[in-house]
Amino acid sequence: MVNGLRTMYAWKEIEAHSALPVGKVNVEQLCSSGGSGVVSSSLPVLPTTVEEFPKLPDSQNILTGKQIRSDQLTPHYTPFVADSGNVQPLYPSPSGFSLDLDISSILPHERHTNSTSLVSQSLNEVCLPSAYSSYTGAFQASTSNIPKDPTEVTWCPDSDQGILNCSDDGITGNNQIQSNSIVMSDDLNKQNEWWSEIMNEDWEELLNDKTVAESQPKVVYPAAQSSQTMSVHQSQTHQSVPCHSGEITAVTSSLSTATTAANKPRMRWTPELHECFVNAVNQLGGSDKATPKGVLKLMKMEGLTIYHVKSHLQKYRTARYRPDLSEGMSEKKITQSQEIPSLNLKTGIDLTEALRLQMEVQKQLHEQLEIQRNLQLRIEEQGKYLQMMFEKQCKTTMDKLHAPSTVEEPSNVSTDLTQSTAKIEFPDAGSNPIDSNKTEITQQIGNKRKMPEVEPSNHQDVDAVTDSPSSAAKCARVDDEEA
Amino acid sequence: MQLQRERERERAMKFGKRLKRQIDESLPEWRDKFLCYKDLKKLVKLISAPQPSSKAEAEFICLLNSEIDKFNDFFVDQEEEFIIRQMELQERIKRVAATSAAAEYGRIGTEMVNLHGEMVLLVNYSSINYTGLAKILKKYDKRTGGLLRLPVIEKVLEQPFFTTDLISKLVKECESTMDSMFPAAAPAAQEEAVMMVEQRVFRNAVAALVTMRELRRGSSTYGHFSLPPLTMPDADLLHSLQLPSPIPIL
């Protein structure tokens, strides 16, 4: 594992811009397991390795630095790069990731946290597939961050001609994607080979596990699943069990099957992309005359499928020619909306004022929502930080334990640790003198009350405490001030 | 301890009740897109603490995942529509500005304000569901002694339905467009505002603000992750806008 890490770092340095669609797809399929059946069966088998998976593919979806700098990228994608560690692709399977987290939270996994965060850090630098780099505009950002769209996943590996044996699906959607995808450079092929070698070491065990293989179909199609799709997936998966790239083949094929199956491909539109769409439509003579195929051709966006265009065109037509219907039913209450302006006129307030008023309330709501959101983000960050601090302190305390040892110490330390937890994680216990310095943090977050989980007796023990908690508290305090 | 638990349950019910109220006030097609808080709560209750990987737990996580998928799908779909509508309105404004048809201006203005409202409601939708998720995860952790909350919330923060930056940007664009279309005039009286509330979008926004304020008023279970009470500049306006009980919209 360590070797793998080192190689990955080196690799990152060399080809930071290479793509890892392969890894991403594979891991996703392995990790994301939405079914309840998976939990029970895979738990005993994958205690240690599962946790790594969610982190590995995450970075694959992270935009490169240059892409982020592009104005057309929607700003909220930047955190993907900023964060290290637990970055997730937006879509492929929030289900899967949650499930993995459950597994990892239940089982002891501390020692893996570090290694996996290293892994993900290196992966964070990994760019999107080279196919991405040729994309213009926001579409790149959209699709790269919306992996729920099976097509997005599909065409990634498609471009890895050297590695994958992309099976012939004969599906229009897939064909279209393949024709649009960029041919990988030799370098990229090498990267992917190297990548799969590294992955193989870690995942051989997993790949040989039937349970995981069986879970994959669920992974791919968390939404509606056709049995046909699943069987395709399964059979191919079993074939490719020993080989990493083989896995991807299976996944790819099944995904492309899914594209034409029940699932509508999902992607996230942006204003820029929409503008491109509108231009294409106008070139073709308007929304009535334009066909999805024509628009798709004109737009020349890699990875955009006819399904996307079709549904978008439909929405566009609705918005243009039936503005009342497209107003989200607010105008459907025709009597009411028609009455309001006249009602307002009767009582002396004109439409403008009425609109202004409504706008004002809505504006306030929005402002409050933004504030709330920022608070929530900060709270989570803070929580993470404190958790980290606690873990560090735990470690320090454990190290100290291993030095001089008396019989009493273990029991003392455990209570001390609990107290440290109490102090570090619940700094709002105001009666504790050591915690008083932490109130600055709490004030940032908001007024707090006593945490129900903290037993009052803990506070009494504080004075009788040994070195470790006090130093832990002090350490935490110092660090907080530095933060 | 028992009392605390009871109070927590009360608080939990309150969120459930508030969520329900918010849902009732919502536009009809939104109503089944909200978090199934009650169902998740039921599942949490079924979970037995000593056996972490029981079937009930798996069910809980499964439901959680599908809920998140539901949010993402709905959110992205709405977002797409809003982008289209916003651009359309901008186009219409450009066309109308040339002809200066006053009536059209009014219509466009109304549509724009409603679009603005719906977008804000989408942000609110995101926020409510996030809050619900956070609460239910907290319950889960409490019940099982597990550490599900933190990692799941981390993932949630990156989900499409929570990344509302684009929508917020569109909202602000709407606001600036409105400002340019209808330059500042005298502030409207508050009584007239009451009539405005008949409009569904508007009413939903008011309800959302009220709910938010109540949710944040005070909690018996303050923790690290609780939000402070809402501080609103114009609390009186909001108060006067509150309707006694919503008239069901069929």
Characterise the protein shown here.
Chain B: This is SPX domain-containing protein. Chain B: Residues 13-154 form the SPX domain. Chain B: InterPro entries: SPX_dom, SPX_prot. Chain A: Residues 425-483 are annotated as: Disordered. Chain A: It comes from Musa troglodytarum (fe'i banana). Chain A: This is Myb-like DNA-binding domain containing protein. The complex is a heterodimer of chains A (483) and B (250). Chain A has 483 residues and is mainly alpha-helical. In chain A, 66% of the residues lie in helices and 0% in strands. Chain A has 25 helices and no strands. Chain A has helices at 2-14, 21-31, 36-42, 52-58, 65-69, 79-82, 94-106, 110-124, 130-133, 137-144, 150-159, 172-180, 186-207, 210-220, 227-239, 244-260, 271-283, 292-299, 306-321, 334-346, 351-402, 409-425, 439-445, 456-463, 467-482. In chain A, helix 2 (21-31) packs antiparallel against helix 4, helix 14 (210-220) runs antiparallel to helix 15 (227-239) and helix 17 packs across helix 18. Chain B is mostly helical and 250 residues long. Chain B has helices spanning 2-25, 37-46, 55-99, 102-144, 149-158, 165-181, 190-196, 200-215, 235-241. In chain B, helix 4 (102-144) packs antiparallel against helix 5 (149-158). The radius of gyration of chain B is 21 Å and the shape is elongated.
Chart the SSEs and their pairings.
The complex is a heterodimer of chains A (483) and B (250).
Chain A: H1 2-14, H2 21-31, H3 36-42, H4 52-58, H5 65-69, H6 79-82, H7 94-106, H8 110-124, H9 130-133, H10 137-144, H11 150-159, H12 172-180, H13 186-207, H14 210-220, H15 227-239, H16 244-260, H17 271-283, H18 292-299, H19 306-321, H20 334-346, H21 351-402, H22 409-425, H23 439-445, H24 456-463, H25 467-482
Chain B: H1 2-25, H2 37-46, H3 55-99, H4 102-144, H5 149-158, H6 165-181, H7 190-196, H8 200-215, H9 235-241
Helix pairs in contact in B: 1-8, 2-3, 2-4, 3-4, 3-6, 4-5, 4-6, 4-8
Biased composition (Polar residues) (chain A): 433-446
InterPro entries (chain A): Homeodomain-like_sf, Myb_CC_LHEQLE, Myb_dom, Myb_dom_plants, PHR1-like, SANT/Myb
Domain HTH myb-type (chain A): 261-321
